[in-house]
Structures are given as structure tokens and as C-alpha cells.
Amino acid sequence: MSPTAYPRWRFFPGFAEPPAWALDLVAIFRANRDEIDSAVVHARRMESDDVLRVLVEDLERLGFSVERGKKKIGKLPRPVFFGDEGSFLRKYEIDAF
Hints:
By secondary structure, the chain is α+β, with helices and mostly antiparallel strands. It has one domain (20-94). It has helices spanning 20-31, 33-36, 48-61; strands spanning 76-82, 88-94. It has a two-stranded antiparallel sheet.
């Protein structure tokens, strides 16, 4: 990987070749670099929600679900720790999956 590659990334597990969707995902970030790169000086500091607004359409076109707001209806809750009878004990609200 060249030191100027953007974005810098690695696919896991390391013994598997990255699938096509991973390369498509990297291409989305590369295509939007000027708008999201933290090394670029922006009019104001870029927050994660600002970056999501730039990427949302491309990510959804690729099949991702993306958070659409800070109210409950726009959030993406994902269980990460399950308990008795399949209930979930812990969940996170994620930006995209």
C-alpha cells in the first residue's frame, strides 16, 4: 500500500481476499475525499453526522442502512449482547451497517 493511498484500509480476516463490496465501499470514500477528509480544511469542523450526510446516498446504493436522524425513528439500534430467551441485554445505536 502506498503512503499516499486514500483511504488507508485493511480487510479482515487477513487470509481472505477482500470481497467486491469492500472495494466498492473504499471507492465511495475515495470519491468523496474532498468533502470528508480530515486533512482538508473545511469551513467548520467535520463531525460524523456531516460525513454521513455526504456519504448516505452512495452507502444506501451499495445496500447499507444509514442513520437518518437523532430521534428514535432515525436511529439504527443493533443488539450486541444477548441474554435469556434470546433477549438482548446491550445494544448500540450505530451510524451504518
